[in-house]
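Late entry, written up from scratch paper. The run itself happened at the end of the previous shift, but nothing got recorded in the book at the time, so transcribing now.
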Amino acid sequence: MEKIRVIGAGLAGSEAAIYLAKKGYNVDLFEMRPKYQTGAHTTDYPAEFVCSNSLGSLDILSASGLLKQEAIELGSTLFPTAIKNKVPSGNSLSIDRFGFCKEIKEIINSLSNITTINEKYEKIDTSIPTIIATGPLSAKELAQNIKEEFGENDFHFYDAIAPIIEKDSIDFTKAFYASRWDKGNADFINCPMNKEEYENFYNILINAQRAPLKEFEASYFEGCMPIEVMASRGIDTLRFGPMKPVGLFDKRIETQFKKNQFYAVVQLRQDDKMANLYNLVGFQTNLKWGEQKKLIQSIPSLENATITRYGVMHANTFINSPKILNKHLQTKKYANLFFAGQITGVEGYCESISTGLFAAINIDRHLKNKPLISLNNETMLGALIDYITFEEHKKFQPINANWGITKEVEGDKRKLKDKKYKNELRSKRAMDEIEKIKNIIGE
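Output as recorded:
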């Protein structure tokens, strides 16, 4: 049977390697730990959980729960193993992290056709079918090689990302669409503030608690400008920066065109092709998530905002997937090369595992000369892949599973206001599609 290389024995790489070994392939699984440490990992186990031991909700009516169930139906090994190692945490899947990764190591060791190679993988060899799943902390040598293969501007390092909210949770009795000075299309949603509202927002911001940075990340933030750092430079800094009100007018209010109507304005920019998600412009932040929620919901028109991604700051690398990958997680340049996990621009444990499985499914089909699998955005996994491979992103940034990236469901608009009912329709639709794909894979 043909040899396949899987680079990285994290969550995505371990899932991919196990799936392919069970299919009969000889798998070389490259993992530079423990010989070379990342600064984030603490063991030499595969599939180590770094920051948290939670995989989120098990409820299929949640975005995370649906993603897990889709992957389980498609042949995941890691999710069932995680469930076996579950610790009490309500309806969430929190695990004994060491019990989990120890069991994954035992599974890998039990598969005689997986050879673990504890060395750095530094240069892509496209003559051998390969899945790169090196996560957010890829070795410098491999990162440089990816830049050489795909272009200097197509392998990114970022310090901070801004929160994303659902459009449907915005109060449009206060918010309005406009572009600055009415130039071009009115693409931005604008949330205006008066002086009192701005000062309340500012006081919440400067007194908010920040998430601690890991020691190995600290050096990456010297040139970063999160919103709380800007605010610390003075009360008016934000009003002359990302929250400047100049040239933004709500046409529902009668005023002279050139006179500023507002004291400050928070702008939101479309983040997905269906215009369900919007990110807060200039709101890169390292605040704790609870503090972010309090801050965002202090903004007039965002009092009931549904936050689908909180802002984070950490060392990370990811490829420009919209340019590099197709919807099979295969590179457009090399048919033998696939990517999976956080290096593709998905965020989170569940997302990494699921894309590792999906890349493995497709590299198997590629080697058997079968049509590659794609999923539509009615499924959670399909919506994730659709998002990270959407070619018209103006500024591609990582995303995790959320309902906002899935296709809208149709039906009685009054009934669809009930979130449970709406999510029941979404989940049923997704699992019906997964069943079709499962049958295709099994043929």
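The CA atoms of residues 416 and 422 lie 5 Å apart.
(Scratch paper discarded after transcription.)
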